[in-house]
Amino acid sequence: MHLRLKKEATKPAPPTSSSSRRVSMRLSTKFNRERPHQALGMKVPADVYARSPRVYRGLDELTYPSR
Fold first, then answer.
1. Is 0.90 topped by the overall pTM?
2. Half-sphere exposure of 23 toward its Cβ, with a 13 Å CA cutoff?
3. pLDDT value at position 40?
């Protein structure tokens, strides 16, 4: 997907950020909902996706050792 995204979204570059977003969303939709994947038994990712039962509660505060 990354090579296709690079080819279709950057050459030529879309004139605005909103048009760039539309190109990315179109490619993402095609990749996840239309294009079958060999690693998924020729299913599309949207057919095998399962939402996680765990609730995301954010990250704990990060601390870094001082130098």
1. no
2. 19
3. 95
